[in-house]
Amino acid sequence: MQSDPIIEIREVSFRYQNQKQPVIQGISASFYPGTVSLICGPTGSGKTTLIRLMNGLIPHFYEGNMTGDVTIDGINTKSTSTAKLAQIVGMVFQNPDNQLVCSTCEREIAFGPENLGLPRSEIKERLESAIKVLGIESIRDSSPNELSGGQKQKVAIAAALALKPKILVFDEPSSNLDIESTARLVDTIEMINTKLHATIIIVEHRLEPFLRIATHLVCIADGKILLHGETANVINDDVFYDIGVQVPVLLKIFHQLARENIYNGPIPIETKPGMELLKKML
Ligand SMILES: Nc1ncnc2c1ncn2[C@@H]1O[C@H](COP(=O)(O)OP(=O)(O)OP(=O)(O)O)[C@@H](O)[C@H]1O
Ligand SMILES: [Mg+2]
Questions:
Q1: Which ligand approaches the C-alpha of residue 93 most closely?
Q2: In angstroms, what CA-CA distances link 109 with 92, 143, 167, 226?
Q3: φ/ψ of residue 87, rounded to 5
Q4: What is the pLDDT of residues 55-72, one digit of tens each?
Q5: 45 CA: nearest ligand 1 atom
Q6: CA of 169 to the centre of ligand 2 (A)
Q7: What's the chain's average pLDDT?
Q8: Element housing 122 (H / E)
Q9: Does residue 48 line the site of ligand 1, with CB under 6 A?
């Protein structure tokens, strides 16, 4: 039996106060516990706005007109404060500089639990656990300013984890990272998902590094969901190739070969097996 959705979006539309048109237009979607969902779509399609609906910044912070309901872990966001929701939905933004405010990494990670007024022993436990999960023992006393982009991001993730969220949301986490740091980030997200059983939402333009861990893909255009399903199904759907997202080259090749009836199997998700398959075909 399938469990209840941990995020449920029901017929939601949202228009920012200073805009004429709604940027989210009648979206319904369910996300289940333990899944990793990759949200993609052209610039300005409403991805970040959709995330703001998940963490309650809409309707509590951004003014505008919202219809429909968003339920997070059984709680309607309309009737819950963002502070309460922040304990369920952790956020990691594209630029960790905007997120890191404390003098040391350790202080940064303890900041959230301290604000919750938790007992000292609990704060210490959460701090140590987050540091261990991210493997950042060596930089715990460093100032966030001294760190590389990848390290800063790990501290931002550790700070989010210290609130023990059931859901972790990443908005374009790779935009300031090189290829190697992005690969390490993907491994970290995978580990958080498998070990801590967190539900993961990732908004990304660069799909390729993340497809490996994505159980589900959501494609948005003009504030509407055009595709939402298991990754293997979505990448085999013609619509995926016409939305205007950065489809990995290998996927495009297989899609084209399938269109021309040269290949009739499923389109491979991962680069390495895909490359091997292609070599065999040549
Ligand atoms: N605070 C705001 N006030 C008014 N309009 C906004 C606000 N934030 C976003 N918008 C508008 O809403 C639309 C959707 O923006 P959103 O940031 O959700 O898109 P996005 O898919 O995340 O884009 P990107 O890929 O560039 O990050 C855009 O037209 C944008 O200009
Ligand atoms: Mg955005």
A1: 2
A2: 13, 12, 17, 38
A3: -80, -15
A4: 999 999 999 999 999 999
A5: 21
A6: 12
A7: 94
A8: helix 120-134
A9: yes
**CA 18 / ligand 1 centre spacing (Å):** 12
1-88+165-240 to CATH, choices 3.40.50.720, 3.40.50.1820, 3.40.50.300, 3.90.190.20: 3.40.50.300
pTM of the model: 0.94
pLDDT, tens only, 239-281 = 999 999 999 999 999 999 999 999 999 999 988 889 999 998 8
What does each C-alpha distance from 4 to 1, 32, 83, 175, 264 come to in angstroms? 10, 7, 23, 33, 36
CATH 3.40.50.300 range(s) for the chain read 1-88+165-240
**C-alpha 110: how far from its chain's center?**
23
Two tokens, residue 160: 């989010």
What is the whole-number distance in angstroms between the Cα of residue 190 and the centre of ligand 2?
A: 22
- pLDDT single digits (tens) 4-15: 999 999 999 999
Helix and strand counts by DSSP (H, E) for the chain: 11, 10
What's the first-to-final CA gap in the chain, in angstroms?
Answer: 44
CB 102 within 8 A of CB 152: no
Q: Which atom of ligand 1 is nearest to the CA of 41?
A: 21
Supply the residue whose CA is at minimum distance from atom 25 of ligand 1.
43
Question: Mean pLDDT throughout 127-143?
Answer: 94
